[in-house]
Amino acid sequence: MQFQNLQVDWQQLPQAASVEMKPIEKAYLKVLYLAWGIFFLLMLAALILSLIYIDPTPTFFWKAVIISSFILLVIATYIITAASFKRKAYAVREKDVLYRTGWIFQKLHIIPFNRVQHCVVQSGPIERKFKLASISIYTAASNIHDISIKGLKPDDAEALKSFIMQQIQPLN
Amino acid sequence: MNWQEPQRQSAIGIFLFAGKAFREMIAIVLIMFGSLIRKEKSTSAYLITLLILAVIIFGRALLEYLYFRFYILDEQFVVKKGLFAKKNIVIPFERIQTVQLEQSLFHRIIHHYKVSIDTAGSDKAEVTIHALPYDKALSLKAALTEHADQAVENIDSATTQNHIISLSFKDLMKLAISHNHLETVGLMIAFLLARFNDIKDWFGIDAYDYLEEHGKEVAVTTQAIGMLIFFALIIAILISVLRIVLKFSDLQITLSDKGFNLKHGLLNSKQQFIGSNKIQYVQWNANWIRRKIGMYIFHVKTTGEQDIKNKQKIQVPVTRADFLTTLAAYYQSIFPSAENNANNIQKVYAFRKTLLIGFPTTIVITTALYFAVDWWSLLFLLWLIYFHFRNIIYRNNFSFWVNDDALEITSGVWGRQRLILNWHKMQVVTISQGIYQRSHELADLIIHTASGDVVLPYITLEQAQMLSDYAAMKAESSQKRWM
């Protein structure tokens, strides 16, 4: 279906869908696994402690239910993390950033530079171990706080940040 | 008025601060007196308690008054406040979004205004000056809004249009009667429940125990319940009438090149100014009854609306269709629907919504209800049928139009809503696809603005790509400011 009377022909517009996207660093998958691993270990410890100390002790049936749902949760997280990691990619155009993310619900964000309020380059403890950084791009959009592209080389993140900062037009 | 000099508010403001301090401490005050009553203390104990309270409240108010000063420095509004925790608020003029003058009954008697200055953006700040005399308040407002739009050099009366929308008493009544009374009943119940719990804190009587003891004395009959619902509705309608008369009496709207000026309210009168380029999008809606009597509420969506308290939202009741056009034309002169054909969302929307939201909800609630009321829980299936029916109506009523400058959407199940958004007001645009949407080349288009999201659900992928590319192009190339 076509829309009539738009100022320009869509064929002549820069099309986001045809841009070649750059995947994020492979090493970031390890960061994700490690972070989830730590989270699940803590959860497992809490679970075991509560199974031992809860009074009255749950029957074998409930123990089995709890343990198997924990295992299911771990497997589901593993699958979703791995699959959505493959989807994460970004592209920098002359006037905006494109960011593709999500596995079940796949999203493509377009963030024009002249709508960016500020951006921050961060690096958590695990990310630092793997020499990775992430960039958070803040706009005035009220329902999404920021868009973070994680798993970049620190140099790439810094370069992207300074590129965006150059492009931000002053408010007036 | 020399605003370069640091100023204090009127000394009479001390009473307002005291009132505020009293309201904040009311729970403590009630607890103190509650325990005094229970312990059957002497009169002198009451007097001493009163004295201490008065000293605390007025002392606090006096300090607050003394350590609150404001002035203008280099196109910036500066506020210094606080005794122990000193706070310096600096607001550049171009960050000021609205300047509001408000009056309570007390303000009216003493001829004062309360001035609130709202800003937008991620660095959110908000300043309230509780009491300023009329002339000072007006002069401050003028000084602050003078620079609302640098593009407009000087404004004389010739460029100022005046549209005075006044509502007759009949209009006000129509507005009040057509209000969503179920919502009011809900608010009443929430209010009562909250007070119910407070009773224990204040007087040490457990209201629930009391009810359990004496509840059996009251016969619960259909008649009694019917009467209860009837009275609740009557009270709800009375509350609505009162609220609407108080809020919208004396409504005046002035449009100028700089923005909207809104004035309304009977006891607590309020003046709002909204700079024209702070408007993100406009929207008007009507519930089922209002639609039938041709009455709409016009909303002006400004930046950061989600954070602003409900009472500061900008809403105007409109009784005539031509006013709607005038108001909306202020934001977007040519409606997309006037030029182009309507587009619809895909038929499958209704079924997918029922499948993804309706079915899981039904399964969970029916199962939960089963434990309480056995097979009667299957009655919940009626809701599922209604839900699907309503999704079909929603999809059939959903239309959108596009033109060079704007997107226009109408939607609604029983009521109606219409929205107009300029493309360049977008912040981020997102195409989202679920599994089903991917295999059928469909997508949701989400346009994030500084005042919430505008969503086109279940349009074709090609449409979504086209519109997102177009919106991005407009945002990136337009010289117009988004705020």
How would you describe what is shown here?
The complex is a heterodimer of chains A (172) and B (483). Chain A contains 4 helices and 7 strands; from the N terminus they run E-H-H-E-E-E-E-H-E-E-H. With 172 residues, chain A is an alpha+beta fold. In chain A, strand 2 (89-92) and strand 3 form a beta hairpin. In chain A, helix 1 packs antiparallel against helix 2 (60-87). Chain A is elongated. The two termini of chain A are 39 Å apart. Chain B is of the alpha+beta class. Chain B has 15 helices and 20 strands. Chain B has helices at residues 13-38, 43-66, 105-109, 134-145, 169-177, 181-203, 207-214, 222-248, 288-292, 321-331, 336-339, 348-373, 381-397, 435-439, 461-477, and strands at residues 68-73, 76-81, 87-92, 96-102, 112-119, 126-133, 161-163, 252-255, 259-264, 270-275, 279-286, 296-302, 314-318, 343-344, 399-402, 406-411, 416-422, 426-433, 442-449, 452-460. The longest helix of chain B is centred in the middle third of the chain and has 27 residues, at 222-248. The model of chain B is unreliable at 149-160 (pLDDT under 50). Classes of the chains: A alpha+beta (172), B alpha+beta (483).
Write the layout of secondary structure elements.
The complex is a heterodimer of chains A (172) and B (483).
Chain A: E1 22-23, H1 27-53, H2 60-87, E2 89-92, E3 96-101, E4 106-112, E5 116-122, H3 125-129, E6 133-139, E7 146-152, H4 154-167
Chain B: H1 13-38, H2 43-66, E1 68-73, E2 76-81, E3 87-92, E4 96-102, H3 105-109, E5 112-119, E6 126-133, H4 134-145, E7 161-163, H5 169-177, H6 181-203, H7 207-214, H8 222-248, E8 252-255, E9 259-264, E10 270-275, E11 279-286, H9 288-292, E12 296-302, E13 314-318, H10 321-331, H11 336-339, E14 343-344, H12 348-373, H13 381-397, E15 399-402, E16 406-411, E17 416-422, E18 426-433, H14 435-439, E19 442-449, E20 452-460, H15 461-477
Brief digest:
The complex is a heterodimer of chains A (172) and B (483). By secondary structure, chain A is of the alpha+beta class.
